[in-house]
Amino acid sequence: MSGMTPQAEFFEQIRQLMGQAEELDWDAVPAAQRRELVAESARCAAAQAAMDATVVAAYEASAEWAADGHRTTAAGVRAECNQSRATARRRVTHARKLRDLDHVRGALAAGEITTDAAEVLLRADRAATHDALVAAEKELVDAARHLEHHELVAHVRAWCDLVDPDRADTRAGDRDAERSVHASKTLGGQVRVDGWLTPVEGAEVLAELERLEQQLFEADWAEARHRLGEKATTEDLRRTAAQRRHDALVEMARRSATHTADGGPAARGRAVVNVLMDYQTFIAELARHTGQPVEYPQD
């Protein structure tokens, strides 16, 4: 490696090690240790992300991208690495933000926080929150070490709302304006439903949907246990989770139809009766209702 800089030698060593990784028999690892290897791989990815930010920051500071005729650092990164514009911009943005966030960069380099956790913290770094973020960085990084990802997202969002209440008010107004639900019937007669609910009302709908779905799950589980006994598993349930949510949503609509706006019973409630029968019974009943003689089940 004569004539190579220490940095170039470092990357050459990494490439050699990665080549050796392909020769290892990963299937031979004891099952009890594979979980740790998955976590270790994520820690290595975090350390690589921190290193990448350092390299990109040095590239930007050198202004070599301008000397090569590029208008921006991201344009230089894109050309050198043959990456998409979005990826190049993201790398440069992360490098710039991590320059001022020593705790985030250090925890990322040590593999103490994941790349996803770092992304959550970096998204919180805006002009209105930057100074507060630098001051609270240590506490937020500590939260990133210990909280589940969805908990960290909620924690950082609440922190941003506290230090930037104007943005919180604006976001709340935007969410209210963006509320929408679309329902349309397909050519096959099915109905497609999608939309965006506001946080409070969405939580209300979701809570009721989950409550009814849980009731349906318990009914399905009881049926499976009655049919198969102790050996029944969730794979034996007669409905999938998605199907139970569908049925729960339909049940919400049916219950709504039987009540007025003030919660009282509707003046013209509607009962729905489902009759289940096998094919032979159906044919026999159909014949009987049409006056045709039929011997069940032979005919």
Structure explained in plain terms:
The mean pLDDT is about 90. The protein is elongated. It is built from 13 helices and 2 strands. Helix 8 packs antiparallel against helix 9 and helix 9 crosses helix 10 (about 165-175). The chain is mainly α. It is about 65% helix and about 5% strand.
What share of residues are in beta strands?
Answer: under 5%
Which percent bin holds the helix content? 55-70%
Report low-confidence residues grouped into runs of 5 or more.
Answer: none
Give average pLDDT, whole number: 88
Which helices and strands, and how do they pair?
Elements: H1 6-21, H2 31-62, H3 64-67, H4 73-81, H5 85-100, H6 102-109, H7 115-123, H8 130-146, H9 149-163, H10 165-177, E1 180-185, E2 191-196, H11 199-228, H12 241-257, H13 279-289
Antiparallel strand pairs: 1-2
Gist of the model:
With 299 residues, the protein is mainly α. The chain has 13 helices and 2 strands; from the N terminus they run H-H-H-H-H-H-H-H-H-H-E-E-H-H-H. 14% of the residues are buried.
Task: Please give a handful of descriptors for the protein shown.
single chain; 299 residues; mainly alpha; two-stranded antiparallel ribbon; 13 helices; elongated
